[in-house]
Write a structure and sequence with these properties.
mainly alpha, about 210 residues, 12 helices, about 65% helix, 2 strands, globular
């Protein structure tokens, strides 16, 4: 899909996307979740959605993909962090989508939900990454999530940012390999420009930390 076509479709669905944003913000606020240096968690959700706005044209095949993809961006942490179940997410999705779209959106959220584990590696194990690779749009959303976190860690707004930038830099080769699907379907693609932005952010000023 061209960037211009994607932009026009996003504008067409702007009211629904705004409702998704408002609902997701409220959901994470009610459980007291914050982001980085005590920002509302909605800040992070908006940055992930920004990644969809900028690069979604590279993975969307039709207008029917637009709302599910933004739902995935706004609700990707709702099971892991906001105490929803899979069925809760499905019920939410059906407020704005037909059954097929709601299923696709819920599967994205489920795929991005970490496994149970004591460490970062245990929570993001091979089973987790396999689920991402096998789920339409999940590789793209996971990259959008990581881009949002990297951008924040490089912004100087968070005292923990320098450490996390080093963590993300060390993880990058494995991370990209783990989410890159062998399926040639556009819905499982990683946009090269998006990958390049992640690499640039992590590599710049690499010797100054």
């Amino acid at each position: 899909m061209s960037e211009e076509e994607f932009r026009k479709l996003v504008e067409r669905h702007a009211e629904v996307i705004s409702q998704l944003q408002e609902c997701a913000h409220a959901l994470h606020a009610q459980v007291g979740q914050t982001y980085g240096n005590q920002l509302p968690y909605g800040y992070h959700l908006d940055r992930v959605a920004d990644g969809v706005r900028r690069y979604g044209h590279a993975v969307c095949g039709s207008e029917e993909d637009i709302v599910p993809l933004f739902f995935g961006a706004y609700f990707h942490d709702s099971i892991e962090d906001a105490r929803l179940t899979y069925n809760d997410v499905m019920k939410l999705a059906k407020r704005w989508m037909d059954n097929q779209q709601a299923l696709a959106a819920t599967e994205m959220v489920y795929a991005l939900t970490n496994e149970k584990g004591r460490t970062r590696a245990e929570r993001a194990n091979e089973k987790y990454y396999q689920g991402i690779r096998e789920t339409p749009f999940a590789p793209f959303l996971k990259l959008a999530d990581r881009l949002a976190n990297i951008t924040y860690s490089c912004s100087g707004s968070d005292g923990n940012g320098s450490r996390m930038k080093q963590v993300y830099r060390a993880e990058l080769p494995h991370f990209l390999a783990a989410i890159r699907s062998e399926d040639t379907c556009v819905c499982k693609a990683l946009p090269p420009a998006m990958v390049s932005e992640v690499e640039r952010l992590l590599l710049e000023d690499g010797h100054g930390e």
